[in-house]
Amino acid sequence: MAVYTEITDDELQAFVSSYDIGKVSSCKGIAEGVENSNYLLQTTSNTYILTLYEKRVLPADLPFFLGLMDHLAARGIACPTPIHDRDGVTLRELAGRPAAIISFLSGLWIRRPRPDNCVRLGEAMAALHKAGQDFGMRRPNNLSLDGWRELLAATGPRADQVQIGLRCELEEEVADLETIWPKSLPSGVIHADLFPDNVFFLDDRLSGLIDFYFACNDFFAYDIAICLNAWCFEPDGSFNVTKARMLLAGYIKARPLSADELGALPILARGAAVRFLLTRLYDLLNHVEGALVRPKDPLEYLQRLRFHRGVRSPAEYGLDELV
Amino acid sequence: MAVYTEITDDELQAFVSSYDIGKVSSCKGIAEGVENSNYLLQTTSNTYILTLYEKRVLPADLPFFLGLMDHLAARGIACPTPIHDRDGVTLRELAGRPAAIISFLSGLWIRRPRPDNCVRLGEAMAALHKAGQDFGMRRPNNLSLDGWRELLAATGPRADQVQIGLRCELEEEVADLETIWPKSLPSGVIHADLFPDNVFFLDDRLSGLIDFYFACNDFFAYDIAICLNAWCFEPDGSFNVTKARMLLAGYIKARPLSADELGALPILARGAAVRFLLTRLYDLLNHVEGALVRPKDPLEYLQRLRFHRGVRSPAEYGLDELV
User: Fold this and answer.
1) Are A251 and A257 in contact, with CB atoms under 8 Å apart?
2) Distance of CA B312 to the CA centre of its chain
3) In this structure, are B84 and B178 located in the same domain?
4) Do A131 and A270 fall within a single domain?
5) Residue A4 domain-assigned?
6) What's the whole-number mean pLDDT along residues B104-132?
């Protein structure tokens, strides 16, 4: 659930009048995106998303995010496109906050992804990775190795309040990953948060990828690892190897994976599990009573982490039939 | 801020397929209406509001609310119209709750109403009162006299936590109103909650009235009294007589007020102030920490109540120049 900055009708109309998008006919705060205030803006010409960037997004990162969406959309990726005002500017200010108007994408997110959704996801992710290769800006992944160490320092002392032994298990895991984490793999711009609620479908067709506010430069295969965690586990915690195989099959049609990338998947998947386990743990431990955002369960990701630790070969992700 | 019931994409598509409104292209929870879950639903044919009725609305009242909107819209009132499914039904069930699809109204609500907005409000309210006269169902106003006594019993013992002396002042006021409340005035269907956020404008034109979930049968002039409180006081608590005059001028163009109605306005305005003071007090005293709805300040309405108690003649509402 998002936060909302109150915008007066006068402010809004003045803001929109700088764009060639018609006049405001409606604007409603929507319950989407936990980091920002998002509004569904209807004008006499079209439907848009109006985003006000709240404090969890660093203003210095906004040109990267908006520039990336612009770049990807120009290369045919179905993603939100920042609208340029009459001076060509995409990042402006409204109600005292950085703000942008973004194109609206149709589609619903799939609450219970099926294997065919995973094929479409794999295809779209590979297309995204390829389209980002000539993007001119860079943003390091601050939620990779270095970030985990920092999150561990902030959460470790209270981690055992959530589950006895969690601190010790996480410390060993991060130490392990620091030793075995790949030094070099094919890299570029990754989405880094391709959870089901960020992927829209219309019927069986993938209609768009949204929420690029964690995008960064990192190993392409790490993006796959994030999706293995987010799309291929069932509510009971079991790993659905068919979905994983479909996801990878979709991906390698557009961008073949090297032997190094395939071999690194179990380690990358452990890292991806640690990343979401730590941020969820941080959010839970620092949850303000009465805040609008309900914290997600970190322990889901402990279960996934343990699963990947038990994986001996990438074949266990369903790869044996693919490569 | 609204609550949200989670709807799966499958449930939603099955639900929408019973209507002749095309296929779902998008559905987003919106931050509107504190009583229900509201979604902005886009289909291949149009934009709609999907409402799931949560526990604060009595299911037995829903046929009245939906029937009234249907009735008023058919008589040219710019208000949401319930969409009928292929069997002609408007009230159905989704995700275990009563649910309806309603037409979408363009417009923005005015954060700082101007006098000309008040003219439009008066006109629209009078038109609503006239259009409701041949509506066949009835719903008593459970937030009038009897309701206040009940709310007072529930809030009185803790009212002084909010302001010392509040309990005593409210008890005297309700006792007074029980004695002097009009026995008979022109009556019919009233909206009973025409606050600025329930009235949409496009430029200077009133484009719609929404949120009929407090509508009931009561004195027409009581609806005016509610609006005098909701539209004609400035943020500093002062009464803006120009706005009141404009509101009444707009109203009487379409529906003249009798001498009895005019004379009763100060008493009705006291009653309207007591109604919102008591419900806000109740919500504040029963606020659950962490709930999504932020309680509104009851004391705003104490100030208004005291103002109306000092009014000696309806001329003080700017009526002297009108009648």
Assistant:
1) yes
2) 27
3) no
4) yes
5) no
6) 97
Report the distance separating Cα B268 and Cα B42, nearest Å: 41
Weakest-pLDDT range from A64-73, A167-176, A310-319, B300-309: A310-319
In this structure, the answer to whether residues A89 and A143 fall within a common structural domain is no
In this model, does residue A3 exceed pLDDT 70? Answer: no
Tell me which residue range forms the domain holding A276.
Answer: 109-321
One domain, residues A79 and A121: no
Q: How many CB pairs under 8 A join A and B?
A: 86
The interface pTM score, or ipTM, of the predicted complex is 0.84
Nearest to A40 among B28, B201, B289 (CB): B28
pLDDT on residue A1: 39
Query: CATH code at A154?
Result: 3.90.1200.10
The total domain count for chain A is 2
Domain boundary among the residues A46, A69, A104 is at A104
For residue B119, is it within any domain? yes
Strands A199-202 and B47-53: unpaired
CB contact under 8 A, B8 and A112: yes
3-state secondary structure of B320: helix
B2 domain-assigned? no
Please report, for the domain that includes residue A16, its CATH number: 3.30.200.20
Phi and psi (nearest 5°) for B39?
-125, 140
All residues of chain A having their beta carbon less than 8 Å from the beta carbon of residue B288 are none
Which residues does chain A have within 8 Å of residue B203's beta carbon, measured at their own beta carbons?
23
Residue A294 burial class via C-beta count within 10 angstroms: exposed 0-12, middle 13-18, buried 19 and up: exposed
In chain A, residues 13-32 whose CB comes closer than 8 Å to chain B = 13, 23-32
On whether both A143 and A278 belong to a single domain, the answer is: yes
**C-alpha A259, offset from chain centre:** 26
Report the chain A residue with the minimal C-alpha distance to residue B290. Answer: A290
pLDDT digits (tens, 9 = 90+) for A82-120: 999 999 999 999 999 999 999 999 999 999 999 999 999
Confirm whether B3 is domain-assigned: no
- B13 neighbourhood in chain A, CB within 8 Å: 108
> Does A36 share its domain with A181?
no
The answer on A52 and A146 residing in a single domain is no
The answer on A135 and A16 residing in a single domain is no
Boundary-marking domain end, from B50, B74, B104: B104
Q: Please, which pLDDT band fits residue B2 given cuts at 50, 70 and 90?
A: very low
